[in-house]
Amino acid sequence: MKFLARVVSIAILASLISGCDTTQIRKAMVHFDRAFIPVLAYSFEGDIHQAKRSVFYLEFQWQKLKKQYQAYLPEEAEALNRINSWLGDAYYAIDANNLTLAANQLEHVKYEFMELRQKYGVDYYLDNLYNFQDAIGLLSEAAGDELMCHMEWGEYEHLLQKAIEDWQAIRAQPIDSALHEFDEARLQQLAYKQDAMEAVLLQFAETFSCANRQQLAIASQSLQPAFFEVLRLFGNFEASQTYFAQK
Q1: What CATH number has the domain spanning 123-234?
Q2: What is the pLDDT of residue 87?
Q3: Are 213 and 148 in contact (CB under 8 A)?
Q4: What is the pLDDT of residues 108-157, one digit of tens each?
Q5: Which residues, 6 or more positions from 224, have their beta carbon under 8 angstroms from its beta carbon?
Q6: Pick from 194, 183, 184, 179: which is nearest to 232 by CA?
Q7: Hey, which CATH number is domain 24-122, 2.80.10.50, 1.20.120.290, 2.40.128.30, 1.25.40.10?
Q8: For the chain, which residues make up each domain, given as ranges?
Q9: C-alpha separations of 181 from 83, 185, 198, 224 in Å
Q10: What stretches in the chain show pLDDT beneath 70?
């Protein structure tokens, strides 16, 4: 019976995502991420003031999305409870001025949503960006480690090449501009930020070819900031501030 219930749930979610008049769940995902990304970005960047302002809008969008997930996927109550707890922990950490802990809790939220989408076969543009973030995060972490996280030089080269290939795949992937509410100006801005990310990544690869770990560690510090310039375009930073002002 459990297997049958899951099959039915997957079928229902698939119809909700593919139906022309039932796309609200996907829009809700996008709206959640538009509120989630500002808090994630501010936490990574260490901007405590803006992080505190942004949590109100995130919580507002989370409550909306949670109601939809509870209705469509009641068997995922445990996953939703985990997300709710991690968001609560992130809010508490932000209130306590601990953005490192907040960023860690927000990463848990991100992974939980990614696993849910993968479980139900939901193709979502931001998941590829999030996977790429993990890839360059590993490259940065290893480059800053004197022992290169115990990696062989060839293994690190493989990870770097894989990150470059993943980025090229992201560049080639079409974006649903209507879903993400991207007008022509926004699309041009996205292309510009993607060009900048690619330039930083290729410069990092060139530094790697010099086989100097210290220079590599310095160069790696540019990867995440360039990535967040791309990711920021999918966040609604203005709404985060406006919602705070209304509270």
Answers
A1: 1.20.120.330
A2: 97
A3: yes
A4: 999 999 999 898 888 899 999 999 999 999 999 888 776 666 677 788 88
A5: 44, 133, 136, 137, 140
A6: 194
A7: 1.20.120.290
A8: 24-122, 123-234
A9: 26, 11, 24, 25
A10: 1-22, 146-150, 243-247
